[in-house]
Amino acid sequence: MNPDPAERARPPWETLRDRLEAEAGQRAAAGDAVAAAAIRAHLAVWWEEQRAWNARLLERLSVHHEINNALVGVRGNTQLLLMNPAAQQPGIRERLEVVLRESSRIQEAAGRIAELKAGLGGGASHSQAA
After folding, report:
1. 109 Cα distance to chain centroid
2. Which long-range contacts (CB under 8 A, 24 or more apart) does 47-54 make?
């Protein structure tokens, strides 16, 4: 069974929560209040743990901002050094260009971290969901 596009856009933990809640509702409707209550109790504990996990993960994924801030200094100073007459010495210009090229790779990786964070809710939406 393939979920529709809107369902695929939701994080899997939200889909699971909804399915478990529906299962509890079905159990309750079938007269099995004990099973429904047990499912809901386990669901409540799991959901709080999931929210805490999401909050910790989103906090750690904020590292992309720190990486980009540091790269501004590295790239800016490297560009200044490239304008310096000392950069014309053999081997120095090439090494400075390597610093710029590799810092661009780091910047792209930080961008992928930012995309991951945005895909997980960007901060508040999933960690605050009830």
Report:
1. 13
2. 47/17, 50/13, 50/17, 51/126, 51/127, 51/128, 51/129, 54/13, 54/120, 54/121, 54/126, 54/127
What is the tens place of the pLDDT at every residue in 25-77?
999 999 999 999 999 999 999 999 999 998 999 889 889 999 999 999 999 99
Buried residues in 92-128 as b, exposed as e (16+ CB within 10 A):
eeeebeebeeebeeebeebeebbeebeebbebeebbe
Beta carbons of 71 and 109 less than 8 angstroms apart: no
Tell me, yes or no, if the pTM score tops 0.70. Answer: no
Domain boundaries, the chain: 1-60, 61-130
Residues with Cβ within 8 Å of residue 51, at least 6 apart in sequence:
126, 127, 128, 129
Q: How far is CA 77 from the centre of its chain?
A: 30
What are 66's two structure tokens?
Answer: 């720190």
Indicate the residue type of 43. Answer: L
